[in-house]
Every structure is written in C-alpha cells, then in structure tokens.
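Late entry, evening session. Most of the bench is empty. Finally got around to the prediction I had been postponing all week. Sequence below, unchanged from the version circulated by S.P.
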Amino acid sequence: MVVNKFIIIAMDFYRKSGFIVLAVLISTILIWLPFIFNYPIWGIPVPNSGLATVASNYDGPYYIAIAKTLYNNQALKQFEFNLPVEYYAAHFPLYPLTIKFIGFFTNYVYAMLISTVFFMILAAIMFYKLALFLKLPQPLFLTLCLLILPARLVIARTVGTPEPEFMFFTLWSVYTFLRGKYTQAGIAGALSVATKPPGILLFAAMGLSLLHEYLAQFKSNPKHKWYNLPWKSWPILLLPLSLISVFYFYSQQYGSFFAYFQSGDNIHLFWPPFQMFNSQAIWVGTFWLEDIIWWMLISSTALMLIYQRHRNLIFYYFLIFFTSLLFVQHRDISRYALPLAPFLIIAYAPYLTHSTVKKAILIIIIPIYLFSVNYIAGNTVPISDWTKLL
C-alpha cells in the first residue's frame, strides 16, 4: 500500500514536471517567434536579424567571448566589443563553462540560448519541488506564475543570461538546506556563487538561519552548550570557498586576486542607500523612476509576509538580498532583484491562487509579452561580424 502511494506521488511529480518543461519551451518559443520571422507584433518593430537579435542581448555575447577564451587576456582582445579585458572579471565563470560544454555539440550562440532555457527548466522544476515541500497552495500554478512574474524574468530566461542557472542552484541549495541535507546545500550554494557574485549572500543567510536555530534551542534549554551547534552544517563553508576559488583563478588570469573589484564600472553599490533615485548617476540617467517605488512596496510587503510564514533560511535570504538592493545605484533594479523572484511567489502564494488574482494575471499576459518583445528588440550589443562568436 505504501509502495503504491509512493509510485502514485512519483508519477504525479514526473507528469507535472513534463508539463513544466512544455510550458517553459512553448513560452520561450513564443517570445522568439517575432524575431525568427522578422514579424512586428502589435506594431512593435523588430530588427531583421532573426534570432541574432535575441542572442545579442546584453550581456550574452560577453559570456560567449569568455566561454571561447576562458578569460585569456590576449584572446579576449580579438572581439569587437572594445572593452578592457578586466571588464570580463565581473562575469563569473560557471555560465560560460556551461556554454563551452554545450558548444562541443553546436555553435556557441545556440549553446548560450540552450543553456539559458535548460537551466530555466531546472529552476522551474526545483521551485515546484520547493513549493511542494513548503505545502504552498496550487504549486503547479505558482510555478507557472514564476515563468511570467516578474515580467523582467521573461526576458532574462529567453536571452543569454546566467539568471536561470543562478536561480536553479540557489533554489536547490535552499530546498536541501531546509531539509537538513547540508552537503547538497553546500555544493549547490557553491555553484550559485560560481555563477554570480551575489551567491555569497546565501552563505550569510545560512549563517543567520543556523544562529536562529541555535538561539531557539538555547532559549528552550538554557543549559544548551556551544558545542551543540549544528556542526553537521559545515558543508556550507563550500560557498566562501567557491568565491575564493574564483578569485584565485582570476589571480592567475589577471595577475590580481581582486580583479573582480577592478573590473570597471560594474559594482553598483553605493552609500547612502536609495542612490537609484539619483537621476544624474551614469547608470540611472532619468527621473522616470516611480516603478522602483512599486517594486519596493511589493518587495518589502513580501518580506513581512515571509517573516510571518517562513521564519527560516527563506526569510534571512530575502532580508539580506533585499537590503543589499537598497544600495544599488542602477535604473534596472528589477534585473538585480531577479534572484528574489521565486521568493516573491512564495510570499504571495495565498493571494496569487485566489480566483480574482488569477483573472488579473490572465489580463496582464499580453502586456508582459509585448514588454518582453519590445525590450529584447532594443537591448542589443552592436555586432557587425558574428564569425568569432560562433
């Protein structure tokens, strides 16, 4: 009887995972179609360069350059981007390595897009597993919500970006950490750090979560000793070790352990906070910034909701990441906030599954689609010769 129940649960999971795979693939192809056929949508013009428009979205071509050269300074100079070689140190190596691996079977441009879509599939399935573990309402529907909310993620998961890969490893690490599987959590967390620098924030969140657990035990039992700390969680040290490894690799390629911090105008953290409202800042450049207020309202409310329902690693990660974003001086704050997307869905799960909200989501699908096509059509790196990138 138990075996039959297990089989039924497993079959249900794989069936719904298959549906998630189809949802990711179909929604991605729908975004690509106007570019593949050079067909304007709703009057929105698209360049006549086909799928090359999608592939040339920032910072995809830079990751291809890294994948082909593995940060070799001389080899990087062959590309037409006119960037100092130190600039590439801001782009961590794991995503280029996945492009390079897939590039053994196809050209690097396709490898980049395949990598993005592949890891979005994995991220969506991992989110579904996390939603099941947290006993969220309608986990499959929430997973579908993640594919379109926030709208900025639709772009990031259909062009060449490391965001889906980073999201997958982060969700895998959070999921296994919550289940007490610290070795898996440490490995997944280390891979997230090797994908994007903000991955190290997960280590800080893990530390706070473990401290919270220890203090709770000490409060219930004042005789609880320091040596009763959860030492089995030591694999989380793989996260800072991963960062050190990346920096050591940079020291070999660039001659500086701190090459990441010398990569030019790539680190947009400034004091005091809220510098994203400085219209004179080079990466802001406009006073049309009201949408950032809405983002702050949505995110800070989500933080309060998570505090009420998930006072564990999820809360501490959201708290640390959200706080760090307050110091970012950049117009595109929604891109920097993309790692919080799954946790926004978790925070608002009881509301997103309400029938009224479901109808509202149906209404905004078309605007999300148009926003995505319009953004991809304009957010391109000028490339006159693709030969060296194939």
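Two things to note before I forget:
The radius of gyration is 22 Å.
The CA atoms of residues 292 and 333 lie 7 Å apart.
Will write this up properly tomorrow.
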